[in-house]
Design a protein that fits this description.
single chain, 148 residues, alpha+beta, 2,3-Dihydroxybiphenyl 1,2-Dioxygenase, domain 1, 2 domains, 4-stranded mixed beta sheet, 2 helices, 10 strands, 16% helix, globular, VOC domain-containing protein
Length: 148
């Protein structure tokens, strides 16, 4: 796999994110099945996923899973604790269609945010089966990812 280049021209490094889940079986079905993330190493307490080239580790910790707070962003109640990936616009549309077909209940339906502004982006929020919030977004011009 070739390494992508970040907006500021440094090689883009994979990130590592560990997060709590209520069930490893549900995490496997959601991240491995619905999102198509290959599984890596695992134990009875955790499982690694290749999350679009990044290392995502689901740790069994039922008391810590889920989101609790929201902030207003462009008129939407955005879960404060969330993670996700910036996709190409075509991949974002394909994922939105796949999630819709699978009956995913969106916290924030797929739509354009900051329409007509420098930060215009396609976005959608949904919960994994353990209550963790995910956001997937896309920019028509990826060069505007960090534009002010």
């Amino acid at each position: 796999m070739s390494q992508a280049t970040s907006i500021n021209q440094r090689p883009l490094q994979p990130f590592h994110l560990a997060f709590p889940v209520t069930s490893l079986d549900n995490a496997r079905a959601f991240y491995g099945g619905l999102l198509g993330c290959p599984e890596g190493r695992s134990s009875p307490e955790w499982v690694d996923f290749d999350f679009f080239g990044h290392q995502l580790v689901a740790h069994l910790a039922p008391q810590e899973a889920g989101h609790r707070s929201v902030n207003q962003v462009d008129g939407d109640d955005v879960p404060v604790r969330h993670f996700g990936v910036v996709l190409s616009m075509s991949d974002w549309h394909a994922l939105a269609d796949r999630l819709t077909t699978a009956g995913t209940k969106f916290v924030i339906e797929p739509h354009l945010r900051f329409k007509g502004e420098v930060g215009e982006q396609a976005t959608m929020f949904f919960l994994d089966p353990c209550g963790n919030a995910l956001e997937f977004k896309a920019f028509a011009d990826i060069g505007r990812l960090f534009a002010k």
